[in-house]
């Protein structure tokens, strides 16, 4: 995912300033961002609306991780953080399985070329 979107507004369900204090933070592998949030973060507004939270992405320097900062009321923050962790793990496992299938297919091609 190219550049990370910057916050221009605060959703109406986030109460200022109390919901902006003490955010929940999780780190996600940068390669999973597009799968989770869509191209250029296009699914972030939908995720925010459904979860009643506000998300902010912060790239970590010299790392393959991105911080996802979750703002909102206590229960919405915790629920959203859990949901995002689950999504990240699901996408990570899915990509891992895809790589294993690719390696198996490449191995089968290599074995096939030795038989000829």
Description:
- There is one protein chain.
- The longest helix is centred in the C-terminal third of the chain and has 42 residues, at about 75-115.
- Strand 2 (about 55-60) and strand 3 (about 65-70) form a beta hairpin.
- The model is unreliable at about 1-5 (pLDDT under 50).
- It is built from 3 helices and 3 strands; from the N terminus they run E-H-H-E-E-H.
- It has helices spanning about 35, 45-50, 75-115, and strands at about 25-30, 55-60, 65-70.
- GO terms for molecular function: mRNA binding.
- This is Embryonal stem cell-specific gene 1 protein.
- It is found in: Cytoplasm.
- Belongs to the KHDC1 family.
Task: Compose a concise summary of this entry.
InterPro entries: KH_dom_type_1_sf, MOEP19_KH-like. It comes from Oryctolagus cuniculus. The protein is an alpha+beta fold.
How would the blueprint of this fold be written?
Layout: E1 24-29, H1 33-37, H2 44-51, E2 54-59, E3 65-71, H3 74-115
Antiparallel strand pairs: 1-3, 2-3
GO cellular component, one term: cytoplasm
Subcellular location: Cytoplasm
Keywords: Cytoplasm, Developmental protein, RNA-binding
Mean pLDDT: 85
Beta-strand residue fraction: 15-25%
Poorly predicted runs are: 1-5
Please indicate the count of domains. Answer: 1
Q: For the terminal residues, how far apart are their CA atoms?
A: 43 Å
The counted number of beta strands is: 3
Shape, per Cα inertia axes: elongated
Proportion of helical residues: 40-55%
Radius of gyration: 19 Å
Quaternary organisation: single chain
CATH fold node name: Ribosomal Protein S8, Chain: A, domain 1
Function: Involved in the maintenance of embryonic stem (ES) cell pluripotency. Dispensable for self-renewal of pluripotent ES cells and establishment of germ cells. Associates with specific target mRNAs.
GO biological process, one term: regulation of gene expression
GO cellular component, one term: cytoplasm
InterPro entries: KH_dom_type_1_sf, MOEP19_KH-like
